Amino acid sequence: MVAIPTHLLHSAATLDNDEVRRIRNDFPILHQQVNGRDLVYLDSGATSQNPLSVIEAEQEFYEQRNSAVHRGAHYLAVEATESFEAARETVAAFIGARSDELVWTSNATEALNLLSYSFLNASLPGAPAESAPFALRDGDEIVVTEMEHHANLIPWQQLAMRTGATLRYIPVDDAGALDLEEAARIIGPRTRVLAFTHASNVLGTITPVASLVDLARAQNTLVVLDACQSAPHMPLDVKALDVDFAVLSGHKMLAPTGIGALYGKAAHLNAMPPFLTGGSMITTVTMEKAAFLPAPQRFEAGTQRISQAIALASAANYLTETGMARIHEWETVLGQRLVSGLSALPGIRVLGPAAGEERIGLAAFDVDGVHAHDVGQYLDDRGIAVRVGHHCAQPLHRRLGLTATTRASTYLYNTTDDVDALLEAVAGVRSYFRV
What's its catalytic activity (predicted)? Predict the structure, then answer.
């Protein structure tokens, strides 16, 4: 039987340290020591931890109904299929979509590659006529931003290279903010695709989605939203945002690795050519040709990530029951505490919005005279887990004059004590390295 999250018995109007400590009881991994110190986990921007209810949901599938979906007529196969499709309905509802608009993928990177390869297939000779809106030709343009994760940059680079389209990008200023005036000049009649992050995994910036969507709609441009850093941390309604596509990653929102999702407007998905082909995505096959199922199945060839999808639905339920608005509010408190505390330390440069300005609950920073990897090792020795490196955003770091930073990222199971532990440790970095 799947456990009921203990904190749900004590929910309050807003999250606070007391409730967060109860939430932590749902996460076994957080109750351990690292190097003789209590673990302070501040790396959820890379991978979040799993509550017991999610772990047990996946275990229960293997114990009770493990079988291939959409293939067998026996009891276990029917049970597995029903659980699999119920999970799709849950995750689709979590982002404000219909179940036939949600495609399972292994991760957000695969979802973005699915789009780029489908658009490539639409651009090939002999592509179905209905896929013409997704075809790119010489002279067409794809627009991204300078703050993108590599997963939302490289697939578009490859698509541009293979189709003859031009890849352009909206620059950021010295503070890391998008230049919207330049965006208005760049997004024009030739822009076929606009792809951008909802929340930067380096800057913590929340992108002005409405402004960018308005620019795209004026040019009949397809909009692709990277929601990896927003879906886990704030209410998300893809219909209200009016984006054409959105991607998310399960392991960043309390679910296991190996599961992600692509949202696409139903009319788009049903007109796009498939990316992977094989079993489970066809209606009729002869030795000469095949006909494909409607979306989402046409993009789900082969054996699916069944237990992971069910676990992702459990994670979505956990987040919904906790309250996405409450989570976002609490992480805003933690993010502001991070930025204010780090900015007050000598020799520390914090990237992204300044204290008091809107951001998600993460902060990437540079310690003058100390490499980010050394900072990370120093913090790890004190039981504090953070991310170091370029965070899969080399162009952004290069624009800001850096090669690497240290990033602390919070989630619903972090307290203000966690943030204060980081601040106290960072305060000693430069003296430790004799800078």
Answer: (sulfur carrier)-H + L-cysteine = (sulfur carrier)-SH + L-alanine
Answer yes or no: are the C-beta atoms of 311 and 54 closer than 8 Å.
yes
User: Hunting for tokens 């504090």 — which residue is that?
Assistant: 384
Q: Residue-wise over 12-31: b if at least 16 C-beta within 10 A, else e?
A: eeebeeebbebbbebbeebe
Q: Over 50: is that where the pLDDT of 26 sits?
A: yes
Q: What is the 3-state secondary structure (H, E, C) of 38-55?
A: ECEECECCCCCCCCHHHH
Mean pLDDT of all residues in 67-71: 91
Q: What phi and psi, each to the nearest 5 degrees, are found at residue 197?
A: -80, 145
Q: In CATH, which superfamily holds the domain spanning 6-50+324-432?
A: Aspartate Aminotransferase, domain 1 (3.90.1150.10)
Q: How far apart are CA 208 and CA 60, in angstroms?
A: 41
| CATH 3.40.640.10 in the chain, residue ranges | 65-320
Residues of the chain with CATH 3.90.1150.10: 6-50+324-432
Residue whose structure tokens are 């009649």 = 189
d(CA 121, CA 127): 7
Can 228 be counted among the known catalytic residues? Answer: no
The mean pLDDT value for 334-345 works out to 98
Instruction: Kindly name the residue from 135, 154, 392, 402 that is annotated as catalytic.
Output: 392
pLDDT of residue 4: 45
Question: What architecture is the 65-320 domain classified under in CATH?
Answer: 3-Layer(aba) Sandwich (3.40)
DSSP H stretches of helix in 146-249? 154-163, 180-186, 209-217, 238-241
pLDDT score at 9: 43
How far, in Å, CA of 140 to CA of 155, rounded?
16
pLDDT in tens, 164-196: 999 999 999 998 999 999 999 999 999 999 999
Instruction: Of 256, 234, 235, 259, give the one whose Cα is nearest residue 247.
Output: 259
Secondary structure, 3-state, 313-341: HHHHHHHHHHCHHHHHHHHHHHHHHHHHH
Rounded Cα–Cα distance for residues 396 and 327 (Å): 28
**Mean of the pLDDT values across residues 254-282?**
97
Q: What is the mean pLDDT of residues 398-408?
A: 97
Res 12: pLDDT: 52
Reported as a pLDDT band with limits 50, 70 and 90, residue 7 is very low
